[in-house]
Amino acid sequence: MIIPIMKTLTEQFHSTVEEFLERTGFKPTEFGRQSAGDPSVMLNLRRGRSPTLATVDRILAFIRESDAAASQIAARESRSIEVHPISFMPRSTSARMRESARSTPA
To answer: Is this structure's pTM higher than 0.85?
Structure first.
């Protein structure tokens, strides 16, 4: 009988953080500064130090909030209406373009 090997909580936390860094492109020092107020938090984690539960809570909350914000931005962008660029041209420019289109031989 093969018993599946489960990840420890520490391993799960480390993989969650590393996947977030890879997915978002955050630099480890900036991530540590924004998520835990400590730019060296990732260096310490990678060296095997165990964070306090309060630090883990702050980091996981930061990841959840970042993912939620990214989802909202993606949803907003998918609902945006595509507008033809000519509609943003000054009136004189678009009028000249219409005139040149009319005067162009077919």
So the answer is: no
Listed residue (68, 71, 66) closest to 21, CA to CA: 66
Q: How far apart are CA 41 and CA 55, in angstroms?
A: 9
Query: What are the tens digits of pLDDT across the range 30-70?
Result: 999 999 999 999 999 999 999 999 999 999 999 999 999 88
Nearest to 55 by CA among 42, 70, 69: 42
| Cβ atoms of residues 10 and 50 within 8 Å | yes
Residue 102 to residue 93: CA distance in whole angstroms: 14
In the chain, the amino acid numbered 106 is A
Joined together, the tokens standing for residue 96 give 């000249």
pLDDT digits (tens, 9 = 90+) for 78-92: 776 555 555 555 555
- Mention every residue, 6+ apart, whose C-beta is less than 8 A from residue 86: 94, 97
